[in-house]
Amino acid sequence: MHVAHVLSVLDMPDRRSMYLEGRTGDDEDRALVAPDGTVVVPAGTSQGFATYFGAFPASYWVRWTGTTVARLELSLEGAGTVRVSRSAPDGSSAVVATEPVAAELAIDVDVRDAADGGWLWFEVEATDEVRVRSGRWLVDVAPRREGRVSLAITTVNKPDFCHATLSAIAGSPALREVVDTVYVIDQGSDKVVDHPRHAEVARALGDQLTVIDQGNFGGSGGFSRGMLETLESGADAVMLMDDDVTVDPEALLRAVRFHRCAVDPVIVGGHMLDYYAPTVLHAFSEHVDQRHFMWGSVVREQERHDLATAPLRDTPWLHARADGDFNGWWMCLVPTTVLREVGLSLPFFIKWDDAEYCLRAGEAGFPTVSLPGAALWHVAWVDKDDTVEWQARLHTRNRVVTALLHARRPRGGTMLLDLLATDLKLLLGMRYYPVDLHVRALHEVLDGPQQLHQELERTVADARAIGAEYVETVRHGPGDEVFDAPDRAVGGQPVAPKPEGRVRQAWFALRSISRTLRPVSAADRRRPSAVLQRSEAAWWEVPRHDSVLVLSGDGGSGTWLRRDVRTFWRLLVATSVAHLRLALRWRSTADRWRAAAPELASVEAWRRTFGR
Predict the structure, then answer these.
(1) Rounded Cα distance, 549 and 555, in Å
(2) CA-CA distances (angstroms) from residue 463 to 233, 333, 389, 437, 467?
(3) Which of 126, 361, 485, 604 could staple 41 via S-S, CB 3.0–4.6 A?
């Protein structure tokens, strides 16, 4: 049969232990990774490889490539037994093949009925000591595409991360064989080419490396530049990657192999694991919920899943094939066929550019597949809240624009009500800056799309200039009178319980609004009267105070929130009017944006923006 190599076992040199079940480090009764990279299974023990990186996600290959037979090939030494197991969509599993250990072993498994879910994995039971020297999974389909792939890394002031990624790529002959060019789109002031390691990495990659220095056009501008260069190079696809990541070439190769074998062109997304918690899978499959037009995991309970405490065998939902709407651009392969058909990214700067693109591609017949086992480690954003910083404008504007283009429900379902409710919570919580940005974002949407490209390089400066008008944007630290002044110990008072249900929340809002009618005391205007940890500063707790210091995640600084009655009412009226205007003009506004979108995402528009 025709076979294509799709997944190597034990081919992540720095992370081989992540292929092994139940590995406990120095425990002599478990398998060990030897200095030469082989796995040693002591006599009288068994070792399973049913892990996120070691098992074969059969259902995805069956559904998208037409695979009917999967083959396991192992190189072994010793005496014992190899068992192959297969799971069902509900997570139940059974042994489907058993073979004695041999120097070279090949086991075929029929998987033609596995489209809805199921993985394959193997286990080695050692009579005498067994060494697993190498292993790989193959499928019975020949690659349908042979072209090379570009890698496009967008970076802003993270040269250390970039050079670690480039070094990993340079050290992988297998990956370099399928890569056309590695594009580093440098949009920062701390330049990649000025890094001490750059000369060494540049020599190693040679003409496979191209560093492009351009203004800061955000993620959408950086990735669109990588898309544009890929189209002009003639490569078959582009792999988009963030800069603050750790990559393993084997994981990138899995995405490339899947792309090559797919029956029809698909976008191949990679999962994200947490850089600082390497076994935590941030999100398994993501979609845009049409009820209120918001992104997120298909099932919220699956977010931040720790594979160390709940591995593959013990997690039933991992076994059902998950089809999402989009994949984050921390790692995402886009075929040039898709680029030619649907264009480049919309000029969103950051936020929603990846979701909008995948929704657009899906409507054109190119689905997105988030492929298990194709993943990288990304610095997670769980310890920061960019919804109250300068990015707040982009969160709202880009979400609304994406809904105007792709929402299947009138006015994005409950989106406008949700956005208005969010603004009310922010105002009650004395967060006036993000509400100002939200109002301006809605005005931008209503004004139309003509300024999107022109304003890209001004995005950050403009938003921060608005922030200078609000005292809540000032950071206070030790030695600052504001930071040191509060008498109350942090966490010294119980946090109010969250009001549950719409009636209680409405009553809470009315009581909190009535509080804004009272004057703020002179003492509260001079210094904070309370201190809250970031985790305590919920929307139902902050409104209990007139002046409060909210600490950052590490406690090393804080933001002083103060009630401002005039600003509260000014912004409440402004956001209510803006939401009402958009609701009344939704259809005509959507028509304008849909008519303009193809030009906004076109190669010609981006060429003009890049000044080419």
Answers:
(1) 11
(2) 36, 31, 9, 7, 6
(3) 126
Give mean pLDDT, residues 263-291. 94
Above 80 in pLDDT, residue 528?
yes
- Residue 544: Cβ within 10 Å count: 15
pLDDT above 50 for 24: no
CA distance 490 to 599: 53
How far is the C-alpha of 407 from the C-alpha of 212, rounded, in Å? 36
| DSSP-based three-state secondary structure for 442 | helix
CA pair distance 77, 128, nearest whole angstrom: 10
Name 137's Cβ contacts closer than 8 Å, sequence gap at least 6. Answer: 5, 6, 7, 9, 56, 70, 71, 72, 73, 120
Q: What are phi and psi of 267, to 5 degrees?
A: -80, 130
Tokens of 101: 């250990």
**106: Cβ contacts below 8 Å, ≥ 6 apart:** 71, 72, 73, 74
Cβ neighbours around 442 below 10 Å, total: 24
Based on the residue annotation, tell me whether 323 is a catalytic residue of this protein. Answer: no
Cα dihedral 33, 36, 41, 47 in deg (nearest 10): 50
User: 8 in helix, strand or coil?
Assistant: strand
Q: Which residues of 41-68 are buried (b: 16+ CB within 10 A; e: fewer)?
A: bbeebbbbbbbbbbbbbbbbbbbbbbbb
In the numeric block, the tokens 């429900």 are attached to 409
Which pair of tokens denotes residue 127?
């009579």
More confident of the two residues 354 and 485: 354
Cβ atoms 10, 134 nearer than 8 A: yes
**26 falls in which pLDDT band (50, 70, 90)?**
very low
Three-class SS state of 370: strand
Task: Read off the pLDDT of residues 203-241 as tens digits, 9 standing for 90 and up.
Answer: 999 999 999 999 999 999 999 999 999 999 999 999 999
Q: For the whole prediction, is pTM greater than 0.90?
A: yes
Closest CA to 398 of 219, 527, 153: 219
Contact yes or no for 121/58 (Cβ under 8 A): no
pLDDT of res. 25:
43
3-state secondary structure of 211: strand
Rounded CA gap, 73 and 108, in Å? 9
Give the list of residues 6+ apart from residue 199 with CB closer than 8 angstroms, or none: none
Instruction: Choose, from 354, 423, 546, 564, the residue flagged as catalytic.
Output: 354
Which of 124, 147, 119, 151 is CA-nearest to residue 135? 124
Whether 127 and 71 have beta carbons less than 8 Å apart is answered as: no
